Amino acid sequence: MVEIILIEDNVFARTAWETTLSSIEDFVVVGAFSSCEEAIDSNLVKKCNVILLDIGLKGMSGIKGAELLSNINPKALIIMISIQDDDKSIFGSLQAGAIGYLHKSVSPEELVEAIRLAIRGGSPMTPQIARRVLKSFHKFKPVHEDDNLSEKEITILNLLAEGKSYKKIADEIFLSVDGVKYHIRSIYEKLHVHSRAEAVSKGQKLRILSKW
Description:
Oligomer: single chain
């Protein structure tokens, strides 16, 4: 049996959830509370498998509650159900220990499937919530070491790999020897290396060199 605790201060929503979940053969609602404080005082948190938790509660917020509840029962699967879909609420909940986040517009069927998904090891999220989470990752472009090398530095690195001297490199790209040395120092710094051999080796690994 999947033992479930509900924490929701809206009596109509709480009753609707309890009615829906109690009708499922392998689900049992062991406790329905209007606040995190009541749930914690009941000692039922230690025995449950799943906790459905609202964020905008009177007294302790659902986010703070998720943190405390996950400490009391690390094995409990906490799924937030809220009308709030801002980044602070979503990511605050996930950081506090929630493994799923549903919008309150979720249908009874979707709620049941979300709990089953969580039990199977998934992280149930309402589609618009999942989209918001993905968009947050799109803001952060991975930084690759070769992205910082200019075209001229890549050209010089390739010439270094061919074993050419600073003078020959300078003649080939129409730059002074001092200018070549300046760019080579920049290459070493960006690739975090200290010699020609290390720079060429790093260039091979990063596939910067045209002949490798």
